[in-house]
């Protein structure tokens, strides 16, 4: 699959020439060492894309020509992960993994047992989602939203067709609960220390279903990807 880079001013239309000169262009030249004749994709992060061929390479920029353009429609099912804020670098890791799993929105949630903080990191986390989107060759960059309160999570549950809480105390497996049909799916991921009984009861009362992902207990940062993979399979999206 062709390498993907994002630009703010996406060129479209076969034959259009474009000066590719942002930070991604520098990476393509200095790290990937792309040369004239090679092809890659440019995207706007919102679904639009253009396949281009390199005509000329300079020190910090390159001239490319558009071969074809298109638009990738969003999936009919939209996935939101409510991620309890993990600690340290695992915040970034949770964004990367959920992005690679196909999430559309990531809502960072300040749960009772969350240790990490993101008040000054939202812009960096959105950049992380952008970089992970390039790595996973997806034309749509997911949104990363700032730390939500419990009430915000309850509001999101009300908006979803299917809301799931993953917790080791659950008596139902995910495969027993999820069947094809929902268009707005919400997955709530707890922190390293686990969800409190009060949080589980509150969200369940709001309409979320408490389910078991499996026997192994995953790290909070990894659980979002596992949940997305399982849900996509159960909904026959994958």
Automatic annotation (TrEMBL):
Residues 76-231 form the Ribosomal RNA small subunit methyltransferase E methyltransferase domain. It is an enzyme of class 2 (transferase). GO terms for biological process: rRNA base methylation. It is found in: Cytoplasm. Keywords: Cytoplasm, Methyltransferase, rRNA processing, S-adenosyl-L-methionine, Transferase. It catalyses: uridine(1498) in 16S rRNA + S-adenosyl-L-methionine = N(3)-methyluridine(1498) in 16S rRNA + S-adenosyl-L-homocysteine + H(+). Belongs to the RNA methyltransferase RsmE family. Specifically methylates the N3 position of the uracil ring of uridine 1498 (m3U1498) in 16S rRNA. Acts on the fully assembled 30S ribosomal subunit. Residues 21-67 form the Ribosomal RNA small subunit methyltransferase E PUA-like domain. GO terms for molecular function: rRNA (uridine-N3-)-methyltransferase activity. The keyword Lipid metabolism does not apply. This is 16S rRNA (uracil(1498)-N(3))-methyltransferase. NCBIfam families: PRK11713.2-3 (NF008693), RsmE family RNA methyltransferase (TIGR00046).
